[in-house]
Design goal:
Distance between the termini: 93 Å
Largest sheet: none
Mean pLDDT: 89
Structural class: mainly alpha
Radius of gyration: 39 Å
Strand content: under 5%
Low-confidence stretches: 329-334, 945-957
Shape: globular
Length: 1027
């Protein structure tokens, strides 16, 4: 299809829509529609006409309404580019409710979405009657229910649902206020429709399914209105009445949910949605939820359903009290969804009970001012819950139900354990975050809330339950597993408030239990592995840590048949809590390290899924981190599993990130011995940071961490393979992302490791990259750039040829030109005052860095510095004298703003060395020099002994270097720095005496140059006795 200059007409639009339904022409049709979007706004009304034309095939109408929906998203807003004109909008809105009897459900839903999006933009200013129109249709259609009016009612409610959805999702206060205004009328109408429908279909055994669908739609809308349409639902009499009706319907609906079929399914949907209403109100309006009539009875009713469902679970316990397998009749294995439905209802009961606990102990935070009435309502709500629901007896009963009914493993759990141990183990590992959707994690969350907030009530009873089964003689495995679950979750409370002696319990009970080899004791072994992991961070004494390691060592032993894959995976994952604890002592762990490493690595070979391997790899990473340099015997095995694991992860970047993280820990632990792994590590670094791989966006941060660790752990000389990675840093510098600091740290590491190679081969692209981002960064990031440049200059030492080569590259890249422009701009700004005053674009800290670069050049060669100033003077046309004059003027002026003593010393050394040039432009600055000398020397003298680290390197830190090559290089580099080695007084004396001799001796020098120095400045300097 040729899309060039095709006019938009209804017929041509239909042809394009027809073409869009064909795979062969869909691309060209899409292009034409996209072109019309921005060139002819009539497209939108014509698309609506196509949708409304029921003589057209539904696939054409489908594309038309989808295009209209996308157009409303992109172009309805007034500020949008190519926004839809107001006249076209009016045409669309005038027709949009005419399809209220649309027979196709799919098309009707899309039209409802369009109405919702338009109303969000236009109500109330440009479409003030949208709610009135919809409410009128609902009211009229519900007066006399016939097949025709049922369809209209369904479509009108569907549209109203999406309109309310859009408005309830808005966070703008104005939109909220508008919804609050129209909610009462809509609520009364929909409430009446809902009650009328339920009263019609509920008594019938086989009503028309359209009626329950209408009442379900009403519930969906009413749920959003209660939550978002009222600020205080409890203050509305209408809401209170409807709230009581919903409670009555809940009880009656539950009586209709037995059996199967469409009718039962729709009733179950009503029950589930009633639960959603109660839950949403409890989360959004905590106090209103409690104060609405009958709420406490509602929560108690739901809790009764929780208990009832728990009883059914307990009656189907798959293992008897003596560890024998039981034949479970019924097992809920029917496919009518009864068990799933009952579990959802019980889950709602738990969530509602938990919401009540949160009202009392964790109220929703708000920054809104609360009126007196609201504060009083909260007090009443809390008192009601505390006195009528959360009583000591009720809380203890709740705890018992959770522990004895919901903490026990079910038959389905054990079947999953046997059929897919690896998948089952991972599923349970990840289930804790799904507490809003799964009943077991929800039970654990509710138990934890009760124990934490009501520990005075629960600590004693929980301790008694624990005592009743804390002996090896208690053989009800599932009950013991449930109690141990509770003991683990409540570890901090039991340790503090019940004085549970876990050390004794571990030695007297857990140690014998993990050695029992009777059937189903693998269940208890898994739980013990988790239990110890939970308690080790709370209280297991240091002398008992070897016992912990012995238990995990035993649980990882493949020769014991009770240690199946689930037990060993659980032990491996929970071992990390024992070794990543504050009280971990490596000398206690070392006797077990070799065996535990071998067992976990062997487990890596046994499992199949990448997710499981990554979980084990995480545990291995923590082991490596804690063992540090003592990991050497195991490092080879760890590294050998990386290549196949890397290949197996494919495009799963999260797993590749974990692999890079483990390798970083290996490098940090092995230090200089890690060079043997470069053949495997360097390609992975390249893969992670190279832009062409498609993985850079995911792996860059972890790849840079590994690269940084590799550079720092590599002893000199660097291999060619490692140096060959350096060019990949250049585009990363130019990228200037949040990882720039790490990139610059790696560059510094390279300069220290291989200064000659970096200067010879990479100085030009490096300085060009620095220049590309210079000035666009904050002061802290600029410091890293200048530090890198300073290190390159310092690496050249006093070799004038090398320094000249570096300076040439700095000039060619434009870096030094930017430095001089920045200094000149700062100087120029100081020359202006008043309304037309100029302001420097360079911050004070950055100006200090600029001058620091020049200071390093001077210390390398003062003659080359003079040549630079001459070049700058020629480039700007100012000449040498003028350039040097404003440069030194700004330098001396800014010296007082330098606060770091080492920075002040560096600049003093450089400015003093300029006397070596014996030129007028520096000799006439003797007064400025003497002011600097006096300030710095007095500062050092005042610091007394503490000034040593400002002048000489302090050797007291040698012990911290160890065998880390990078730290050794840094120490050597620092000890060779004049800032750390030169005595300031001797430096000043040397150059001052030298310039005196070169100018005819002290007397002639005094008469010709010192006579121009202010008497007080000269007097202060003379006191230092350096002349």
């Amino acid at each position: 299809m040729d899309t060039e200059n095709i006019p938009l007409t209804p017929q041509i639009l239909l042809e394009v829509l027809q073409a869009a339904t064909s795979q062969q022409h869909v691309q060209s049709a899409s292009n034409q529609l996209s072109k019309w979007e921005t060139t002819d706004p009539r497209l939108w009304s014509l698309l609506q006409d196509a949708y409304l034309d029921r003589s057209l095939p539904n696939d054409i109408r489908w594309i038309a309404i989808l295009q209209l929906k996308n157009g409303v998203d992109k172009y309805w807003r007034k500020t949008a580019t190519h926004s839809i004109p107001k006249q076209i909008k009016q045409v669309i809105k005038s027709k949009i409710l005419t399809s209220i009897d649309e027979p196709s459900p799919q098309l009707a839903v899309q039209n409802a979405v369009v109405v919702g999006k338009i109303s969000r933009h236009d109500y109330p200013l440009d479409w003030p009657d949208v709610f009135t129109q919809l409410t009128a249709i609902v009211r009229t259609s519900s007066e006399e229910i016939t097949p025709e009016t049922l369809l209209q009612l369904n479509r009108a409610l569907q549209i109203l649902l999406y309109v309310v959805k859009e408005h309830s999702a808005g966070k703008v206060p104005r939109m909220r206020a508008n919804l609050h205004t129209i909610t009462p009328e809509i609520f009364r109408v929909l409430g009446g429709v809902y009650v009328k429908c339920v009263d019609t279909w509920a008594p019938a055994n086989a009503p028309p399914m359209e009626l329950p669908a209408i009442s379900l739609l009403c519930l969906k809308i009413l749920r959003r209105l209660i939550v978002s349409g009222y600020e205080f639902p409890n203050r509305s009499e209408t809401v209170g009445q409807f709230w009581q009706i919903l409670q009555q319907h809940l009880a009656s609906f539950l009586g209709l949910t037995n059996g199967s079929g469409d009718y039962v399914n729709i009733v179950r949907k009503h029950v589930i949605h009633l639960g959603k209403i109660f839950l949403d109100v409890s989360r959004t309006h905590q106090c209103s939820f409690v104060l609405l009539p009958g709420t406490l009875e509602l929560v108690k009713f739901y809790w009764g359903l929780v208990v009832s469902h728990g009883e059914s679970l307990a009656s189907s316990k798959p293992i008897g009290g003596q560890g024998h397998k039981r034949q479970v009749e019924g097992n809920g294995g029917s496919d009518d969804g009864t068990e799933e439905f009952q579990e959802k209802v019980a889950l709602h009961g738990m969530l509602l009970f938990r919401a009540c606990v949160k009202v009392v102990y964790s109220p929703n935070a708000t920054y809104r001012y609360r009126q007196t009435q609201e504060k009083e309502e909260r007090t009443v709500a809390v008192d009601m819950l505390a006195s009528q629901l959360l009583t000591p007896d009720a809380v203890i009963h709740c705890m018992e139900v959770l522990v004895t009914k919901y903490f026990m493993l079910r038959k389905g759990d054990l079947e999953g354990w046997e059929e897919d141990p690896e998948g089952w183990s991972m599923q349970w590992e990840d289930a804790s975050e799904s507490w809003e959707f799964l009943i077991r994690p929800c039970a654990e969350r509710l138990f934890l809330d009760l124990v934490i907030n009501l520990k005075d009530v629960l600590a004693g009873p929980l301790k008694r339950v624990f005592d009743s089964c804390s002996t090896p003689q208690q053989q009800d495995i599932l009950f013991k597993d449930a109690v141990y679950t509770a003991i683990g979750l409540a570890a901090s409370v039991l340790n503090k408030d019940a004085s549970l002696d876990f050390d004794t319990f571990m030695n007297n009970t857990l140690v014998p239990e993990v050695q029992i080899s009777q059937p189903y004791y693998n269940i208890l072994r898994r739980r013990i592995a988790i239990l110890i992991g939970q308690w080790v961070t709370v209280k297991i004494s240091v002398p008992n840590r070897p016992t912990v390691y012995k238990i995990y060592q035993h649980l990882l032993d493949t020769s014991d048949s009770q240690n199946d894959l689930v037990v060993r995976l659980t032990a491996a994952r929970n071992l990390k809590f024992a070794i990543n604890d504050w009280d971990f002592k490596i000398e206690d762990f070392l006797p077990f390290a070799n065996d535990l490493f071998e067992k976990i690595l062997g487990l890596m070979d046994e499992v199949e899924t990448t997710e499981t391997k990554m979980g084990l790899l995480n545990a291995i990473g923590i082991l490596i981190n804690r063992l540090d340099e003592k990991v050497e015997p195991f490092a080879e095995r760890v590294v050998n599993i990386i290549p196949p694991l890397w290949e197996a992860t494919g495009e799963e970047h999260i797993f590749k990130q974990a692999i890079l993280g483990v390798l970083t820990k290996v490098i940090n632990a092995m230090k200089d011995m890690s060079v043997r792994y470069h053949h495997m590590i360097l390609p992975l670094i390249k893969f992670g940071v190279e832009s062409g791989t498609g993985m850079q966006v995911y792996l860059l941060e972890d790849g840079l961490e590994l690269w940084d660790a590799t550079i720092k752990a590599t002893p000199a000389p660097a291999s060619q393979e490692l140096l060959a990675l350096f060019p990949h840093l250049i585009p990363l510098v130019e990228l200037g992302s949040e990882n720039l600091r790490k990139v610059l740290e790696i560059i510094e590491g390279y300069i220290l490791l291989a200064p000659r190679e970096i200067i010879i081969h990479y100085r030009d692209p490096l300085f060009a990259a620095f220049n590309s981002i210079l000035g666009g960064l904050k002061a802290e990031a600029n410091r890293f750039i200048f530090n890198g440049v300073e290190m390159v200059i310092r690496a050249a030492g006093t070799n004038e040829e090398a320094i000249q080569t570096i300076i040439r590259s700095l000039l060619d890249s434009g870096f030094l030109l930017k430095v001089f422009e920045g200094i000149h701009g700062s100087w120029e700004a100081r020359q202006t005052t008043g309304p037309k005053k100029k302001y420097s674009k360079v911050e004070g800290n950055i100006l200090t860095d600029y001058l620091g670069i020049l200071a390093r050049i001077i210390l390398g060669s003062s003659g080359l510095f003079v040549n630079i100033v001459e070049y700058i003077g020629q480039t700007t046309g100012e000449g040498f004298e003028v350039t040097m004059d404003w440069l030194l003027d700004e330098w001396f002026n800014h010296f007082g703003n330098m606060s770091n003593p080492k920075t002040r010393k560096l600049n003093l050394l450089a400015l003093t060395r300029l006397l070596d040039c014996n030129q007028k432009w520096i000799l006439k600055r003797l007064q400025d020099l003497m002011t600097v000398w006096t300030d710095v020397v007095n500062e050092f003298d005042a610091a007394n002994d503490s000034s040593d680290d400002l002048i000489y390197w302090n050797d007291a830190d040698d012990d911290s270097i160890g065998s880390i090559p990078h730290l050794k290089r840094m120490r050597q580099f620092a000890t060779e720095d004049p800032v750390a080695t030169v005595d300031v007084k001797e430096w000043i004396k040397h150059y001052l005496n030298k310039v005196q001799q070169e100018n005819g001796g002290a007397a002639q020098f005094t008469g010709e140059w010192l006579a121009n120095v202010d008497e007080s400045v000269l007097k202060d300097f003379t006191k230092l006795r350096m002349m």
